[in-house]
Design goal:
binds magnesium ion; binds zinc ion; Rossmann fold; alpha/beta; 6 strands
Length: 186
């Protein structure tokens, strides 16, 4: 008997869950949830999905903020999610810059590989949601269905084209959750 598929959704952070900024999100004050995003996470949880985040945070490698600030942002995120009944099970972040040539900075798939191992997921049934091409590329390279949201850099990403085959586009994380859960029920 095959193991039942683990129900996990993998999200990018900036521009998907919270408002993004070209000047980076450097402090808890700058971390502001997008409308409906935390409720969308709660809705996924209620349907039995665990939520993991994979986020490039090169602001650390650039010295724009430190681990204390990142931890404080994530504490705020977890608390705000909990306030609407949502839970984020894991946050994987890459602190490097592109000059570090690490394996974790998206579009490389290192963080997704770690999530897949930790949660024993089947990539084919585990959507990756992002607002940037590199989120979708990282997912698609491992066989995850890529989902683009039009919040954050999403509109620019859509306009620039070149999305991985099979990319599904949603207005925002709330729309993703509704579409995805409706499809999963069929
Ligand atoms: Mg993003
Ligand atoms: Zn890295």
């Amino acid at each position: 008997m095959p193991m039942p598929t683990k129900k996990v959704v993998i999200l990018d952070r900036d521009g998907v869950i919270n408002v993004d900024s070209d000047a980076f999100i450097k402090s808890p004050d700058e971390w502001v949830a997008l409308p409906g995003s935390l409720e969308a996470i709660a809705r996924l949880n209620q349907a039995g999905y665990r939520v993991a985040i994979a986020t490039n945070q090169s602001g650390i490698g650039r010295g724009l903020f430190d681990m204390n600030a990142l931890n404080a942002m994530h504490l705020k995120m977890h608390r705000m999610a909990a306030a609407v009944g949502g839970r984020i099970d894991a946050v994987f972040f890459c602190p490097h810059t592109s000059e570090d040539h690490c394996e974790c900075r998206k579009p490389r798939p290192g963080m997704l590989k770690m999530i897949n191992e930790r949660f024993e997921v089947d990539p084919e049934h585990t959507p990756v949601v992002g607002d940037s091409l590199r989120d979708l590329q990282a997912g698609a390279s491992l066989g995850h269905p890529p989902h683009l949201v039009l919040t954050g850099k999403g509109r620019k990403t859509l306009d620039a084209g070149g999305l991985p085959d099979g990319t599904i586009v949603h207005d925002d994380l709330r729309a993703f959750a509704l579409d995805f859960l409706a499809d999963a029920q069929e």
